[in-house]
Amino acid sequence: MVNSIETSSSVRLLSGLVTGYVAVVAGTIAALVVLTAVGSPRATTEAWVHAAIVAVFAILLPLRLRAARQGSRGALRAVGIIAGVLAVVNVVESLIPGLFPGWMRVEMIGIAVLMGLVVLAVVRVARHG
């Protein structure tokens, strides 16, 4: 029997949260594309750099989650660590005055909340399977 946690309701919740993160990141990049196309000052270089970095994690998190669903405790731990770091970094960056446009600060706090929920779901999965 393969050690799998795929059927756990906590894992389904975790999957939904990670999918939500991927959707938010995709929406952020789409917004930046539109803002850049119309020449808006709200599509700053800093916003693009931030979006590129979170896009990397939007690729990495689902990959680690897939390994966790196949029974890898290390991958589950990685999901929790990545989510925790993303939560903290997004809060800190959103609080730096003048660094990001207002709309992106809202997005960053949303990501921080989402990643906090991912951390809680990871803890739940780790404790209860």
Automatic annotation (TrEMBL):
<keyword id="KW-0472">Membrane</keyword>
<keyword id="KW-0812">Transmembrane</keyword>
<feature type="transmembrane region" description="Helical">
    <location>
        <begin position="108"/>
        <end position="126"/>
    </location>
</feature>
<protein>
    <submittedName>
        <fullName>Uncharacterized protein</fullName>
    </submittedName>
</protein>
<feature type="transmembrane region" description="Helical">
    <location>
        <begin position="12"/>
        <end position="35"/>
    </location>
</feature>
<feature type="transmembrane region" description="Helical">
    <location>
        <begin position="47"/>
        <end position="63"/>
    </location>
</feature>
<feature type="transmembrane region" description="Helical">
    <location>
        <begin position="75"/>
        <end position="96"/>
    </location>
</feature>
<keyword id="KW-1133">Transmembrane helix</keyword>
